[in-house]
Design brief:
By secondary structure, this protein is α+β, with helices and mostly antiparallel strands. The relative contact order is 0.23. It has a single domain, classed as Glutaredoxin (3-Layer(aba) Sandwich). It is built from 6 helices and 10 strands, in the order αββββααβαβαββββα.
């Protein structure tokens, strides 16, 4: 995953919209000691999308009903945040009780459809965990989905080699079995904190 990205790439991964949303949520809810992530129940819409999977098939949110779902926006050429996040999520899920692992699903949505073909996306997500669902779509579809969850993404100008950076949120949205938005996982959470939240949520409505 060698990339020629701007040195300041890390500094603007957390975009204003998602930061403002997190601050607002914190102010409305306070610190809920029962969760390590931010409780966003009732503050964001339920999970809904119609995107393209890694085999070129259409995948909808209803195809995955009944599972705890973790939604993360990124791209396969991402030099740091995406691989770090996917690795952490994979480790957290694998540390859950076996019966709950199969009920928990990570959805990685690439916001770089120009480079991330279904085939490339499949190779990428399989490297971290073959159970991760890789998804993408055309830019208008992706922007509409990002807007639904109060975030956005953007593209830098390509360099001389055609490489370009993609800005995107580093937050992970967690939805319960009914597709309701429940938690916002911040990058600073540990693998074990994520594991604890996922177990609690899975057992809550199992």
């Amino acid at each position: 995953m060698n990339s020629h990205f701007p040195a300041n790439f890390r500094s603007w991964l957390n975009l204003p919209l998602i930061l403002i949303a997190t601050i607002v949520l914190s102010g409305c809810l306070g610190e809920d000691s029962s969760w390590h992530g931010k409780d966003i129940q009732g503050l964001m819409p339920e999970l809904a999308f119609e995107l393209t999977g890694t085999s070129g098939e259409t995948v909808t949110a209803s195809d995955l009903d009944g599972q705890i779902r973790l939604l993360f926006f990124g791209f396969t050429s991402c030099p740091d945040v995406c691989p770090t996040t996917l690795q952490k999520l994979s480790q957290a899920i694998k540390a859950m009780p076996p019966e709950l692992q199969s009920q928990t699903q990570t959805l990685f949505v690439s916001v770089d459809p120009q480079r991330d073909t279904p085939e490339r996306l499949a190779r990428y997500v399989d490297f971290f965990d073959k159970r991760i669902v890789g998804l993408t779509g055309n830019e208008p579809e992706l922007r509409e989905l990002a807007k639904r969850y109060r975030t956005t993404f953007g593209y830098d100008e390509p360099d001389a080699d055609g490489n370009y950076a993609v800005s995107h949120s580093s937050a992970v949205y967690v939805f319960d079995r009914d597709g309701k938005a429940r938690l916002l996982l911040r990058p600073d959470l540990s693998t074990d904190e994520i594991r604890q939240d996922l177990i609690a949520l899975a057992r809550e409505n199992s």
